[in-house]
Specification:
It is a single chain. The chain is of the alpha/beta class. It has 20 helices and 16 strands.
Length: 519
């Protein structure tokens, strides 16, 4: 893909959509390495006399999105540099405008040696540039790096482009989404966690109309949502209605999710909730930050989608305002036939690429991969994910227990945490020692979600037209979905937009995916 066309595609994404993101888990305590114990006495002198000069630190520039309000200090970076023999320059840019920076850096050929994308959407958009030979292929080199070689093959396969591997992935649980809700409100109103979509609507209505906060005012709402169909509430609720995950099968052939009746049922659900006043009316124009603030300021009782593991952060901010508030999580919501389903991601939420404009040759690439190989040791992974033991966390029962100073962790660790390659099973990070009942419940639900998980059948497939036009075309459906929910178009109007999607390239995407499906 040429830089100009990529710029146009990313500009389309900037104008119309944003996808978020989130957080993962960790695993396993690092074992001490006896070979690192210092020599003593005579052996120390001999070692000093025979030891080769230390290798010069590898200088690496890294660009990545920042999901906090402040750029982190060098506290963690300095320790990582010591452990990996590197000199690191991190270029943090706010996540909300990251695509714009990615766009301009790509267009000017100024991407650094290590370039993190933002999410799966920006990765899809980058595929044309990858095919155009502008990034290094790393697949044939992974066998030279014992830790990188532990990355899960099934997830690596989901990130391949034309059967070749160019990226490392940031792993995430397959199905973390669900509901974070005000349990204290539900208890006061005598409500149980919603067993089906009808009960979900009833809870949203009750949280709006029955004064759950007891202040005698009608100033609360049920669901707070944001301008994101995938990681907001819509896709999660849609899976509860039985909608396929992005693509589904009809008579042995793939068809996009928005052509299924269940997708329409989901639009009807949100249309009814919005018209009833049971959610924020301007959700299509509400940012994630504003949605979170609305929830933690006590104005809404249901936060759906994203990650149930966000309950820790939401709880921290909520109890500052309402010390007696209680949050819990829930995800087992059945459709009208009593069936459960959860959509699943392809096992990653972001990837990192290595531009040829900044990585000059394979020797330099291998030095950079050596850094990532060291990142996938428990010592480095725990440092970057959890911080400094004794300062940011302690270890109890072989698990990491974050300090009570959440602001310190947010300020000093979060920026680096979001860049850790792999996942618990592959890099040896500690699991989290969870103490908040709702978070403990969330971890249990994540495991249950996978049991009824629905994968995207196109995750490992490739469509040239989708790579070139997919995000642009998806905006047609996104806009039509919002218009339907807002009552600006009816079903006939929505179907007309689907036909527009097909005529502008969607039909070709369907044809291309089916050409490689089940091969």
């Amino acid at each position: 893909m040429k830089k100009k066309s990529f710029t146009m595609l990313l500009t389309a994404l900037l104008t119309f959509s944003a996808m978020l993101s989130g957080c993962g888990n960790s695993n396993n305590e690092a074992a001490a390495d006896p070979t690192t114990a210092p020599a003593t006495g005579e052996n120390t002198t001999k070692a000093a006399e025979t030891e080769a000069p230390s290798e010069k630190p590898t200088e690496i520039k890294i660009m990545l999105p920042l999901n906090t309000t402040e750029t982190p200090p060098d506290t963690i970076k300095a320790e990582v540099e010591k452990l990996t023999n590197t000199k690191l320059t991190y270029q943090f840019f706010p996540a909300d405008t990251y695509e714009e920076k990615l766009n301009s850096s790509f267009a000017t050929g100024s991407l650094p040696q290590v370039t993190y994308l933002k999410n799966q959407t920006t990765f899809i958009q980058m595929k044309e540039a990858i095919k155009d030979g502008q990034f290094w292929e790393i697949g044939p080199l992974l066998s030279e790096f014992p830790n990188l070689n532990k990355l899960k093959p099934e997830i690596l396969n989901n990130t391949k482009v034309d059967g070749k591997l160019y990226s490392l992935y940031i792993g995430r649980p397959l199905a973390r989404q669900g509901i974070i809700y005000r349990k204290d409100w539900a208890d006061k109103l005598g409500l149980q966690p919603p067993a089906n979509t009808d009960e979900l609507l009833a809870m949203a209505k009750a949280f709006t109309e029955q004064d759950p906060d007891g202040n005698g005012k009608k100033d609360t709402t049920g669901i707070v949502d944001r301008n994101e169909l995938t990681y907001g509430a819509f896709k999660t609720v849609s899976s509860w209605f039985g909608t396929p995950n992005t693509w589904g099968e009809v008579d042995g052939k793939l068809a996009p999710e928005f052509t299924f009746q269940q997708y329409t049922d989901t639009m009807d659900f949100f249309k009814k909730i919005r018209e009833g006043g049971y959610m924020n009316q301007d959700f299509a124009a509400t940012s994630k930050t504003d949605a979170v603030n609305m929830f933690t300021s006590g104005k809404a009782g249901l936060y759906i989608g994203g990650s149930m593991q966000d309950i820790d952060t939401l709880n921290k901010d909520l109890i500052k305002n309402f010390p007696d508030a209680v949050l819990d999580t829930h995800s087992m919501v059945a459709d009208k036939d009593g069936k459960f389903a959860q959509w699943m991601i392809p096992g990653y939420n972001n990837v990192v690429l290595f531009p040829k404009t900044s990585v000059k040759d394979e020797a330099e690439l291998k030095k950079i991969l050596t850094f990532f190989d060291k990142m996938m040791t428990p010592e480095v992974a725990n440092l970057m994910y959890w911080g400094i033991e004794g300062t940011h966390y302690t270890v109890e029962d072989g698990k990491a227990k974050p300090t009570d100073d959440k602001e310190l962790i947010e300020r000093e660790v979060k920026g680096y945490k979001d860049s850790v390659i792999g996942e618990a099973e592959t890099n040896g990070m500690y699991l989290s020692l969870n103490v908040l009942p709702g978070r403990i419940h969330a971890e249990e639900l994540v495991l249950e979600n996978v049991k009824v998980g629905v994968p995207d059948p196109t995750a490992a497939l490739d469509s040239t037209t989708y790579t070139e036009k997919g995000v642009e075309l998806q905006q047609i459906i996104t806009d039509a979905t919002y218009k339907y929910i807002y009552g600006q178009i009816d079903k006939a109007g929505f179907d007309k937009e689907v036909e527009t999607w097909k005529s502008r390239g969607g039909a070709q995407i369907i044809e291309e995916y089916n050409a490689v499906y089940k091969k």
